[in-house]
Amino acid sequence: MNYPVLTDVRSGELTNGWNTMPVHKYEIGQEVRFQPARLQVGSLQDAYVVIRLLPEEQGSLQYQIQHTALGLQRVVRESEILPICAP
Q1: What is the CATH number of the domain that holds 40?
Q2: For residue 50, what are the CA distances in angstroms to 8, 62, 68?
Q3: The pLDDT of residue 2 is above 90
Q4: CA 20 to 30 Å from 46, out of 36, 55, 64, 79?
Q5: How does DSSP assign 16-81, residue by residue?
């Protein structure tokens, strides 16, 4: 028997009534700005693009992002990136 997957409006999590699963805020291909929680030596706080959605680790969803100009890749927590709004 298949049950529909619902989205909890308050938390933004997918739920089937029994289990919940966090939902990524950002999509593959979306441009984001990297904002590390604390200053990281050598971190470029420029525009990146999301290239992979990764599972939750230590209570935070993760992403693999790629620098738009230099091609550098890194794995970041959702709390370390912000959307770049289109003009």
Answers
A1: 2.30.30.390
A2: 24, 10, 10
A3: no
A4: 55
A5: -SS-EE---SS-TT-EEEE--SS--TT---SEEEEEEEEEEETTEEEEEEEETTT--EEEEEGGGE
Q: In the numeric block, which tokens belong to residue 63?
A: 């992403």
Tokens of 75: 């794995």
Q: Within 10 A of 54 (CB to CB), how many other CB atoms are there?
A: 14
pTM of the shown model: 0.70
Q: Is residue 52 part of a domain?
A: yes
- Name residues whose C-beta falls within 8 Å of residue 84's C-beta, 6 or more positions apart in sequence: 31, 32, 33, 47
